[in-house]
Task: inverse folding
């Protein structure tokens, strides 16, 4: 008997989609079940890890991919379960699993453009209601799904993110002047200007700031904050960097500065902790849940509070490093994959049970 096929939409691979790509990469790398087959649909089959069947699906646009290309492929493959992020394709012949990372566009509409907000507010709730199961990366995201969309609690499974083994305290780190590190896409929600303003408040003794993240419409505003605060030469914008370089930057940082306005999880917090780096973050969204008391947490959109948090983190470095390393050990992609496979199996068992019930009913109807 052939093993049931589980198809994972891995379109984010190779597209520098930060947390989304990290999630799919970590999940695929750890997926393992002798009773299941796994396939990943992607534009970059060379990035699919060994043990997962790569299925290439080119796409000129995301709209045509979700409306035409992906439904057509799924009709041909006929998977037993299909797994997506954020939204489901227009048609899906199989029970669908949907991962939702956050509902920041609902909690703080200012973090997204009007066009994108309209798309997300249309697609995400509709997809969450259509999905057979919804995976939330945190308890906070689960609460948001229940409160904002009325998703039944029993339909939601919390599967926290993990930390890649590349992030560890051992290894090379940069030499030279001390620096604080900001990691996140340059967009309004991540709030790089508040990190820059906090740095200015710390004065001459402050570390310089290294900013890592792809520009998603926020670079110009961050650069204006640098000029406005007289910090030219003290703030370095690195753009998107490969994981190996990011790991080195974490290890060498005096602290991670993470002034996000809202997070459904907050992977950089755990990555920094796993690297032996103190963390200063906000109390927004799921960050207190993820940090678990091992970080300095301050009010969002408050440069004064953030500057104070940076000073406290540098003064209390030894304790924060130890607490962070212990906290990060509790989050692994192997555990994320284990919980996710349990969801796949539960759906397969539900489907088998319904099929058996229907077959039994047909036999009774034919009985004389």
Result:
């Amino acid at each position: 008997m052939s093993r049931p096929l589980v198809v994972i939409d891995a379109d984010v691979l190779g597209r520098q989609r930060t947390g989304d790509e990290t999630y799919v990469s970590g999940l695929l790398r750890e997926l393992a079940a002798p009773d299941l087959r796994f396939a990943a649909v992607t534009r970059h089959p060379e990035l699919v890890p060994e043990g997962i069947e790569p299925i290439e699906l080119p796409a000129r646009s995301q709209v045509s991919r979700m409306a035409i290309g992906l439904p057509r492929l799924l009709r041909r493959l006929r998977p037993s379960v299909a797994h997506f992020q954020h939204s489901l394709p227009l048609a899906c012949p199989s029970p669908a699993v949907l991962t939702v990372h956050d509902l920041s566009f609902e909690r703080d509409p200012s973090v997204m453009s009007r066009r994108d907000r309209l798309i997300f507010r249309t697609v995400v709730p509709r997809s969450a209601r259509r999905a057979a199961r919804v995976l939330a990366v945190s308890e906070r995201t689960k609460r948001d799904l229940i409160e904002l969309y009325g998703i039944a609690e029993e339909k939601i499974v919390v599967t926290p993110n993990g930390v890649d083994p590349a992030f560890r305290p051992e290894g090379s780190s940069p030499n030279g002047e001390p620096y604080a590190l900001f990691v996140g896409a340059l967009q309004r929600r991540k709030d790089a200007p508040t990190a820059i303003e906090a740095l200015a408040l710390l004065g001459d003794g402050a570390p310089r700031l290294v900013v890592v993240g792809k520009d998603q419409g926020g670079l110009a505003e961050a650069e204006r904050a640098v000029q406005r605060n007289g910090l030219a030469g003290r703030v370095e914008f690195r753009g998107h960097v490969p994981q190996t370089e990011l790991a080195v930057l974490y290890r060498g940082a005096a602290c991670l500065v993470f002034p996000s306005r809202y997070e459904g999880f907050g992977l950089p917090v755990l990555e920094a902790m796993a690297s032996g780096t103190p963390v200063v973050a906000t109390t927004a969204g799921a960050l207190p849940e993820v940090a678990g008391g091992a970080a300095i947490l301050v009010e969002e959109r408050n440069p004064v509070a953030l500057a104070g948090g940076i000073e406290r983190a540098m003064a209390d470095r030894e304790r924060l490093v130890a607490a962070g390393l212990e906290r990060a050990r509790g989050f692994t992609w192997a555990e994320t994959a284990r919980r996710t496979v349990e969801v796949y199996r539960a759906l397969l068992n539900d489907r088998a049970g319904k099929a058996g019930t229907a077959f039994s009913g047909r036999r009774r109807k034919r009985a004389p």
Summary: The first helix runs from residue 18 to 30.
